Structures are given as structure tokens and as C-alpha cells.
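We were asked to recover a plausible sequence for a given structure. The inputs and outputs are reproduced exactly as logged, with field labels preserved.

PROBLEM: sequence recovery
POSITIONS: 146
GIVEN STRUCTURE:
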């Protein structure tokens, strides 16, 4: 099937991301209404930060997944993990560290104690942090690969 135009391209990108999450992290996310790529650095050691916005139906499907932990008492752990990711990205891209600092500042990972999250790592050090802000219907995903 050949897609044309902006929305066709966005569908291809989104389907590719859903497939990557399934393959890399065993994470079965539904299709989002809006995907915002904050950064996606390919190459040998790719890293990316995405914000996905969901409909009520999509949010329901996400919350039904059994992968989630409630932020609640893990608020500090999650904050520390996100800060470590931000620091890592700035260290991996020293020449552009101010650019990434600005991107994180303009696109903060927002969550409350009622939010859900999951983290998963691989033996090579690659990992994902996914944070689901339920009231905003937003999924924040931070990934790095080695």
C-alpha cells in the first residue's frame, strides 16, 4: 500500500513505532491520536523521546495493560530515572547538550502520583521509561539503545 501526504507518512511512522515497541520491549500500545517526536537520533546508538496523546478508548486500552506500576510511592524513583535519562542524552550528544536541555525544558515529562509507568532494560544497557499521565491522556516514552 502506498501512502501519500503528511497523514499517510505519519501513519507509516506510527505503525513502525508500535512495531518497534512490541519487538524491543513487549509493549503493545494502541494507536495514538497524536504523536509528537521530540527527538529521534538514529545511528549506532539510537535514542528517542516521544509524546503520544490518546483518545478515551486508547487510554482505556493502555491502562488495561499489565505492565504498569503506579507512580504513587515511586515518585522519587521515577523522577531520578527521568533525570538520569536527560543527563545521559546530554552526555551522548555533548556538542548539542544545550539543544537537548532546551527540548526537555520545552517538553517536560509530566506525571502525578496517580500516573502509571514502566521501565525495562536489556542486558546491553538499552532501556525504556514509559510514563502514562492519565488525566492528560499522554504517554511519554524515553528510549536509549546500545
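RECOVERED SEQUENCE:
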Amino acid at each position: 500500500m502506498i501512502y501519500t501526504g503528511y497523514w499517510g507518512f505519519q501513519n507509516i511512522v506510527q505503525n513502525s513505532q508500535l512495531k518497534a515497541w512490541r519487538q524491543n520491549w513487549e509493549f503493545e500500545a494502541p494507536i495514538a491520536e497524536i504523536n509528537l517526536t521530540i527527538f529521534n537520533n538514529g545511528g549506532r546508538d539510537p535514542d528517542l523521546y516521544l509524546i503520544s496523546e490518546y483518545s478515551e478508548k486508547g487510554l482505556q486500552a493502555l491502562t488495561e495493560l499489565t505492565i504498569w506500576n503506579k507512580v504513587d510511592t515511586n515518585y522519587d524513583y521515577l523522577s531520578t530515572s527521568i533525570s538520569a535519562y536527560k543527563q545521559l542524552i546530554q552526555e551522548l550528544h555533548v556538542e548539542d547538550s544545550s539543544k537537548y536541555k532546551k527540548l526537555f525544558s520545552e517538553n517536560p515529562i509530566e506525571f502525578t502520583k496517580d500516573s502509571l509507568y514502566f521501565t525495562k532494560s536489556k542486558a546491553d544497557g538499552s532501556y525504556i521509561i514509559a510514563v502514562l499521565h492519565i488525566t492528560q491522556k499522554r504517554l511519554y516514552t524515553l528510549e536509549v539503545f546500545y
